[in-house]
């Protein structure tokens, strides 16, 4: 039985309402509601088919949603096992970061296991895909490729080949074809590339995947502001949202689950992009700290935690005279509001004058460390930069800083300390209540940021006076009285 078709859907956020209103009650956008009947009659037909009777929960087979490992270990780790048949996954990332390469490796690996898999390449020709595959190794016979941009062609190929896994690269390049629309030119959901179009295409593909019980992966390009084009609309359509990140000028790539209906989202996958595609990174410390220069002011190592992984990164700070009328605060890979807070605490509680200077802080390697546990390392890096005094090369620091200048406990401290010890960082500044560390490690327990500065020899070396340290090179800039 078909449902009443008076529902309206917001083209911006995808929320539905039972009647038309001028402003979307969910996202607040004006004039964004369109009758679903006008949006895509086929989606509705599928919706109607999906009306099923309730069943006792106890009779539902829990193994029906078992993940199938792809064989690409870091990919499986993030998905807590692998892709689930009948599920939809969205892989987002900036152009050129390696989405197509990663998925081609996943397809190859599954095909090498004998599974029939399909790559729908809407952006590259079959020839281009073959050239890329060539770099990655032999191509298994059960890896099929379809170079197409029409949704109807994709649906027909899915029905004809019945693959175990289908990758659509990218969802933005597929058009909800002309045959479903009543008019000429654009499809029923507007011109290709628009939010409505991307949404309609994804909607259809997800429905098809569910019906055929095929694992579907959609590639989505991320726009400059970090949102998936066809923004939040796709995120609640799919079961899993993966984000592939990294610095294009650096080999390290990070895979995260932003949303995952079949497991936890905290896990992090690490890859290195090389000549033969992506290889798993077992020891990220080598990549992240490989180019570190010691004996220079403004840097200290931080044991950061993401998911079940500990990443040793270097937090760096640079303080320079103001280039413009306003002091500039700039962060790369760190949380800008935490930098502002740490600067305020340094000024108010750690004996530093308020900084009238430009402050730059960063974490190298394309890693993002947004956890408050980075505060202490950030505070020490800034103080070291101001004083022009390098911190000990084998020192690390971890701790959250409170507004009163106190250093607070962080999660997974034991694990962080072990990773520091393993990579040769033997002097670790930690909150006073920290558990005892591994053997060979000297814990410097501090209860305030000021105490941390004193413990590392920063207090009194240019910090207490209202100016740069004498002989500290070009100096840290202008410091207000
Ligand atoms: P690609 O997977 O095409 O990125 P996306 O699909 O996210 O746009 O890969 C982008 C870059 O990776 C490209 O500049 C070439 C590089 N690359 C390698 O360095 N090694 C390789 O083996 C492959 C296949 C690509
Ligand atoms: Mg691509």
Please work out how many helical segments DSSP would assign: 13
- What oligomeric state is this? single chain
Question: Class of the largest domain, according to the CATH hierarchy?
Answer: Alpha Beta
Looking at the structure, the CATH topology of the largest domain is Rossmann fold
CATH superfamily of the largest domain: P-loop containing nucleotide triphosphate hydrolases
Q: What's the short version?
A:
This protein has 481 residues and is α/β, with parallel strands linked by helices. Helix content is 27%, strand content 23%. Helix 2 packs parallel to helix 7 (195-212), helix 6 (151-161) packs parallel to helix 7 (195-212) and helix 10 crosses helix 11 (375-387).
């Amino acid at each position: 039985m078909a449902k009443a078709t008076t529902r309206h859907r917001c083209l911006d956020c995808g929320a539905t309402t039972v009647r038309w209103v001028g402003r979307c009650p969910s996202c607040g956008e004006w004039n964004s509601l369109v009758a679903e009947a006008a949006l895509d009659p086929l989606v509705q037909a599928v919706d109607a088919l999906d009306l099923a009777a309730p069943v006792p929960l106890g009779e539902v087979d829990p193994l029906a949603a078992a993940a199938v490992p792809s064989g690409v270990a870091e990919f499986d780790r993030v998905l807590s096992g692998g892709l689930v048949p009948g599920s939809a996954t969205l892989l987002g990332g900036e152009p050129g970061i390696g989405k197509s390469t990663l998925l081609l490796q996943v397809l190859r690996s599954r095909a090498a296991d004998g599974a029939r898999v399909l790559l729908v390449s809407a952006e590259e020709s079959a020839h281009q895909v073959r050239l890329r595959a060539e770099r990655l190794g032999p191509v298994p016979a059960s890896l099929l490729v379809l170079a197409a941009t029409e949704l109807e062609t994709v649906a027909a190929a899915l029905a004809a080949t019945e693959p175990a896994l289908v990758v659509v690269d990218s969802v933005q390049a597929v058009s909800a074809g002309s045959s479903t629309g009543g008019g000429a030119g654009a499809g029923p959901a507007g011109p290709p590339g628009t939010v409505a179009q991307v949404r309609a295409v994804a909607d259809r593909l997800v429905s098809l995947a569910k019906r055929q019980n095929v694992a579907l992966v959609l590639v989505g390009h991320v726009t400059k502001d970090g949102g998936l084009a066809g923004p939040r609309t796709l995120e609640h359509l799919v079961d899993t949202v993966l984000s592939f990140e990294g610095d294009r000028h650096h080999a390290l790539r990070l895979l995260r689950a932003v949303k995952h209906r079949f497991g936890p989202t905290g896990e992090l996958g690490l890859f290195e992009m090389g000549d033969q595609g992506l290889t798993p990174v077992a020891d990220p410390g080598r990549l992240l700290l490989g180019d570190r220069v010691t004996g220079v002011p403004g840097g200290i190592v931080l044991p950061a935690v993401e998911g079940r992984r500990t990443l040793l990164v270097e937090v760096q700070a640079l303080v320079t005279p103001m280039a413009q009328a306003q002091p500039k605060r700039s962060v790369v890979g760190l949380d800008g509001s935490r930098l502002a807070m740490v600067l305020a605490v340094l000024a108010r509680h750690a004996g530093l004058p308020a900084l009238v200077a430009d402050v730059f802080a960063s974490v190298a390697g394309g890693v993002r460390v947004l956890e408050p546990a980075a505060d202490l390392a950030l505070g020490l890096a800034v103080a070291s930069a101001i004083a022009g005094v390098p911190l000990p090369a084998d020192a690390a620091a971890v701790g959250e800083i409170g507004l009163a200048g106190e250093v607070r406990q962080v999660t997974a401290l034991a694990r962080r300390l072990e990773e520091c010890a393993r990579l040769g960082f033997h002097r670790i500044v930690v909150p006073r209540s920290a558990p005892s560390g591994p053997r060979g490690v000297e814990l410097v327990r501090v209860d305030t940021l000021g105490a941390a500065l004193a413990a590392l020899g920063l207090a009194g070396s240019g910090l207490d006076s209202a100016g740069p340290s004498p002989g500290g090179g070009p100096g840290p800039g202008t410091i207000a009285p």
